[in-house]
Amino acid sequence: MFLLTRYSRFLLNGWPMNFDHTSLPSFEPILLDLHHYAFHAGIDALQERGLLRADSELPYVLRNNPSAVRRFFRGCHYGFDLAQRKVGKLVIEYEKRAKDYRAKLKQARRDRNNFEIKAIADVLDCLSRRQLILRRLIDSILWQMVSQEPWLLRRTQVSDSISPIDPVVLEKTLVTAGQLNRENRKCIHIVSDITTAVQIGDLVRLCVDSNPRRWEIIELKEGKVNDALLGLIGQSAVSPENLNLDKIEESFGQKSVSQVRRMLRQKGREEAIENFRTTDKGIDPQTKEIVELSPESVEVVDYFDRLKRSCSVAKQSGASAFVVDGCLRVMVVSDSFYSIQGRNGIAHNFYHWRYKGATCKLPVAGERESEIEAIGKIWPFFDLVEANLRAQWPAPLFMWPMPKALIFDFALGRLRAFAQLDFEQFFSLAAMHGMELRWLSQKETKSVVSRSQVIPGSPHSRGVLAKMPCVSKHGSMQLMIGSFARLFLELMTPRHLLKMTEGSLRRLDHQAQSQEESGT
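^ that's the sequence the OP posted. Answer follows.
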């Protein structure tokens, strides 16, 4: 689960938007080419054969022409594989450059050379930013393949932090993935380490020759010891207690015990994912808790359409804003507007948006400090693009339902979007629908301290208690930070979040009634 507090410095202040440096080729042409491979190769394959005249005809052609379907997926496979190899090469190159610059940064700090420190930091920010964008592009390939099972990427993470790049390991895995992709054009192999979303296994194999599409996590191991340990694990339940660890250490050496434990954990995670797929129930690899998935697909009501309209205004006038359901404020600004206003200027706008009619006191010498203090107390606001890039599990920015030009405006910082949830107004909205909300105390959330962070802007609370007496007299549920994160990561509307909460309360009440009637 993405924690809004983890990257608060970047989400609140804004991550540096420098993608270009004199030592590097321009980034936008590179990203445009890679995006084309990842999203348009299948269409290109059809157009080359005269099977498709316009992109808009694709659904019709795929429904009515079986040979076009085969050619389309083959083209997609080629594009996915090519994009992965090119992205992998760039990510490795950027990581090697970053390693050299980090060594130079240490020396500059020892020399107390502030000019050199800033220059190197700028290059490192540029390289880091490029890597992140490219890795989210590969996440987009995964999303295209698992769109029927979007929960998958939430269950392939063991940490909220994006895994670092190991150039040596990544290079070897890319070679293996490339070989497997050439051998079987009906299955695409995505390297886990090049994504931000997958932290289990070395490869994700996605096959298109079945319905639903098959996927599996693959662990690559080399050497005789690994083969022998895999043989032992394959014959036992996933628990160290089922293995004679002393005998393993005697036969294969001291390191083999920790190695077999890692392999057992990995096997357990892979089996948990398969359980989710086949039974809708399994152990979450991050929280280690049993999670039951709803068999019903939920169509999220979002505010993407309003965001797109606001972008058009912001590109013309510099800024645009709108309110969703009376409690979620969204502001879109151009890069030129942000360069002048900065984070403090955005906060100032949110302040006066909340307190409409209040006279601005910043120009008044004696009252300036009081307004600055008041601005610092507003509800936190978040950069929607930065939240998306670092959250790992939501649909990547490149999958947003908007024109490619707008996506690139956001990805490259020409447009920025900020959103602020006014919890006071949100609680009022809930009350209008018969739902009672209140902040949970520290005592009530003691059991979730290790896995749920304090909600930004709250009275140091980790959750909200929801009750709906008209639905359930005794039932209640807790909304933790992940629930509210959906407003920023999936662009879910607050009203839809309340509707989902009401649905959950109704199911809980139905279950309670069923248990009473059955006497259990």
